[in-house]
Amino acid sequence: MDRIGEDANGDIALLTFSAAEDAVASGSSTPVKDSSTSTSGVKGRSKWKEAALRAKQGLHNIDFTRHPRAEAASRAYLILHHPAFYITHLVVSVLLMLLALAEWPTLLLDDSQAYRNWFLPIHGSVEVLLLSFLLLDFVLRMIWLGRQFYSLQSITVYTFLILVVMYIEAVAVLVRQETHFRVLRALRPVFFINTHLMFGVQRVVQQVFLCLKPISDVLLLLLFQIAFFSIIGYYIFNQYDKDYFGSFGQSFVSLFILLSTANHPDVLMESYHASPASPIFFMCYLIVTLYVISNVLLGVVYSSFKSFDTTKFKSMFLHKRKALSFVYNQLAGLNGIELSDFEPFMKEFQPQMPAWQVLCVFKALKAERKMQMDGGVDRDNVGFLSIEQFYELYRIVGFKWKEVRKKGKRCAQLPEFVRSILRSIYKLVSWHWFNSIISVIIIFNTIFVVVNAAIIDPAERFSEPVGIKIGNFIFIGSKRYNSLCMQCYRSSGVSVINFMTTV
């Protein structure tokens, strides 16, 4: 039996399984060592569970100094990084923002008795419930990190303080049965960005803040140039144009808007009417600010962002390598990691992955580096993973696996006359002149369509020969069907669309 895996980038791994390996993949697992005799140094935690925690830290880019030591910290860590918790956290954050649709000034609510009796208690209870879940997230982080929680990034600590104030405010509204002007509601999107599934957005926001320092230098230079030209423009054009250069403030605002060319050429018309040489000032201003400094600002933004992004990528890559090195040292024996250690590790690392996919991942890792053959003898350790092969774990785990039966077995259950017809079609489309004949038909069809479209009178147009349509249908359908198995043909969206369009 063959199994094929494909990741998001299109990389494909095709694995062939023997009968014994198929038996292992179907449910009968490899003998597993006793976990009670193999601990990682943390009391009550097996080496496979410890290795899985390290692997998850490398995958989620978590600092190793925040590794959970106690059992309660491990449970809090596993809850925080569970996929169900990720989705729940995202849904709660979205619902918290949607509460704005039922609040003033979105709804023009009056101060009636009905509003106080039923609407405000329901709204306040829902808000307190949602904020309680967000507060639970920080409580679990405190249990996991302990005192290290207060040494996190300042944005995390500020988010926690904002959440506490918002929670107290919501409880106060619920108790008093009376609302008030609440400014902190504008910060609700912060909790949405703080979710794990918004990791990409968090990374971009973080890099934007890191790029502010080099960007601020160019911005100060740009503001200095605008102020410099504003002073000159005020003293030159003050007597000619009171609307745009009546004061220094008006001059600064006019030239600042001119940076986007929104008020061009209105800003120079009065000055040009008084002196034909006045456009030279505006030309110099636009060349210096719009075409030089603005492009320098764009280049600084791009280079700074790219530099920080490259540095972040390198740090994440080395962090994953360090995590996998620890896992390898934790699981490997004298020759490497064997399947009996790899299976319980994957059970802790990816609990939802079935046994046959674990075996596929193991074999795919073995196939990552070509085995060195010397006289027909494999010099690699058969059945063991080396450190170079194990470094590809995060990529191979992302593969999506499915069974692929051999090409000759797909028609084994069909009647003999159907198989004979399919063999005849295959011989036809495999004929070396077949593509040439179909190409001539397609060219003739193209010429026919162009000539037919040039005829203005619909009554004089020709009807398309049926043979051309049949030829196109046979070419597209038979060629794709014989190059793909029927299951792959149906699973390919492009093939299905082409087939329906041809029909």
Q: What do these coordinates show?
A:
The chain has 503 residues and is mainly α. The protein is 65% helix and 5% strand. It contains 22 helices and 7 strands. The strands form 3 sheets. Strands 2-1-7 form a 3-stranded antiparallel β-sheet, covered by helices on one side. A two-stranded antiparallel ribbon has the order 3-6. A two-stranded antiparallel sheet has the order 4-5. A hairpin with a 2-residue loop joins β4 and β5 (377-378).
List the keywords:
single chain, 503 residues, mainly alpha, three-stranded antiparallel β-sheet, two-stranded antiparallel ribbon, 22 helices, 7 strands, 5% strand
Rounded to the nearest angstrom, the radius of gyration is 34 Å
User: Largest beta sheet: what is the strand line-up?
Assistant: 2-1-7
* Biggest sheet descriptor: 3 strands, antiparallel
Please state the average pLDDT score: 77
Summarize the structure.
The chain has 503 residues and is mostly helical. The chain contains 22 helices and 7 strands.
Layout of SSEs?
Layout: E1 2-6, E2 12-16, H1 19-25, H2 47-59, H3 71-80, H4 83-98, H5 113-145, H6 154-176, H7 188-193, H8 199-210, H9 212-237, H10 242-245, H11 248-258, H12 266-274, H13 279-331, E3 337-338, H14 339-349, H15 355-366, E4 373-374, E5 377-378, E6 384-385, H16 387-390, H17 393-397, E7 400-404, H18 416-430, H19 434-454, H20 466-483, H21 486-491, H22 493-502
Antiparallel strand pairs: 1-2, 1-7, 3-6, 4-5
Helix pairs in contact: 1-15, 2-13, 2-14, 3-5, 4-5, 5-6, 9-11, 9-13, 14-15, 19-20, 20-22
